[in-house]
Amino acid sequence: MKILKIQIKFFILLFIFLISTLGVKANIYNKKFDLSLESGANPYGSLTSLNNEFYGMTSFGGLYDYGVILKWNPTTNVYNKKFDFQNNTGIEPYGSMVLKNLKFYGMTSRGGLNNCGTIFEWDPSSNVFTKKFDFNNNFGTYPRGFLILFQEKFYGMTYRGGLNNKGTIFEWDPSSNIFTKKFDFDGIENGNYPYGSLTIFNNKFYGMTSEGGKYDQGVLFEWDPVLNTFNKKIDFNYLWNGSYPYGTLSVNGSKLYGITTGGGSNNWGVIFEWDPLNDIYTKKINLDTGGGNYFNGKMSLFDGKFYGMMYQGGINHKGTIFEWNQNSPPVAQSLSVTGSSYVGSTLVGNYTYFDEDGDIEGESIYKWYRDDVGIDNSSSKTYITKIEDIGKLIKFEVTPVAITGEKIGNPFNVIFPEVIKKAYKLFPAEFTWR
């Protein structure tokens, strides 16, 4: 870490990007803010929202180069450093802060009485910082994640320490300041060295370890805080589902989302989806170093999109802030145009609506074209050919629209296979040919 700190220069580019799935996956990058050593550097954790502003921490930089607490407004793009960590408060926070009763709670990975990390409370309104607990070898050491609130108590994990020195799961009561170790990781059977944090879903906790398990590349697990029972659910492997997860699972609806630091087609990690009810894993995105990598935090859901921070990657390889839209837009499939090629006939545009996320079709948009030129007043699925269409090719276009989720998809079109012809003039029925 000291070598890394020496290498950090004046500015660390942070980027915000959108990963959207408009038929094909695409990354769009927009730089939002330049961090410096003075303002805080190398964020490991995630952003937490309060009153339409984001709060977070950096692991280095600030007055003592041990990290800072920061505030960032996504609307005005205004950044403020709020607190500088130092040895007695705890240093180098790797996780994120959690909000309870308008106060933030968090952990540092080192520093404090035993140099094993601390639990702290910070009041954003008064900017008052209070150390609450010092970690030690018995209870666990070097926590990398953040606390999670469940039934008025906080739960978390440590990276090291405990019975096997492979990390622990713990419970901390902020009202009584009582700390209880709940579980010791052992390595092979249930993983070891958890970097991230626990996630609550249906009154059970889910988490990941960075190593251990069948392939020694980490596991995804379930832990019941009431029964204190542990169940391994997934063994990570870089060949098919990513490897070495250093972050925390996020919940959206009935599914969990996470990021690995290795594996995937580029070996820079993947964004994945896991359905705990049906035990179904789906890889969603293959990450690359340009968009950021080495994820240690938890993605935050805001306005239907996920946000987070990468520790490395980007143009200067110093980390990124990112935005990811996990919902896929609707598509139109099996397009065709049926009808006669003569003037006055009715052409009908046909298609099959499909949405990967199950979003129901809304008022999709229709348009007809004559030799690629839009036809006025042609906004329905049917079109009656006119005299000016003679000798022209007619094209039907549909832009699928969903009621919910990612609502508007890309336009899809199909060309009627015949040019429009002049209609034959029919003889009257009473006419007799002689």
Indicate the topology.
Layout: H1 2-7, E1 11-22, E2 24-36, E3 48-50, E4 53-58, E5 68-73, E6 78-84, E7 98-100, E8 103-108, E9 118-123, E10 128-134, E11 148-150, E12 153-158, E13 168-173, E14 178-184, E15 199-201, E16 204-209, E17 219-224, E18 229-235, E19 250-252, E20 255-259, E21 270-275, E22 280-286, E23 293-295, E24 300-302, E25 305-312, E26 320-324, E27 331-338, E28 346-354, E29 365-370, E30 373-374, E31 382-384, E32 394-399, E33 412-415
Parallel strand pairs: 1-26
Antiparallel strand pairs: 1-2, 3-4, 4-5, 5-6, 7-8, 8-9, 9-10, 11-12, 12-13, 13-14, 15-16, 16-17, 17-18, 19-20, 20-21, 21-22, 23-25, 24-25, 25-26, 27-28, 28-31, 29-30, 29-32, 32-33
What can you see in these coordinates?
Strand 19 (250-252) and strand 20 form a beta hairpin. This protein has 2 domains: 9-324, 6 Propeller (Neuraminidase); 331-415, Immunoglobulin-like, CATH 2.60.40. The longest helix is centred in the N-terminal third of the chain and has 6 residues, at 2-7. The radius of gyration is 28 Å and the shape is elongated. The protein has one helix at residues 2-7, and strands spanning 11-22, 24-36, 48-50, 53-58, 68-73, 78-84, 98-100, 103-108, 118-123, 128-134, 148-150, 153-158, 168-173, 178-184, 199-201, 204-209, 219-224, 229-235, 250-252, 255-259, 270-275, 280-286, 293-295, 300-302, 305-312, 320-324, 331-338, 346-354, 365-370, 373-374, 382-384, 394-399, 412-415. The chain is mostly beta strands and 434 residues long. Strands 1, 2, 23, 24, 25 and 26 form a 6-stranded mixed sheet that branches. Strands 3-4-5-6 form a 4-stranded antiparallel sheet, with no helix packed on it. The chain has a 4-stranded antiparallel sheet with strand order 7-8-9-10, with no helix packed on it.
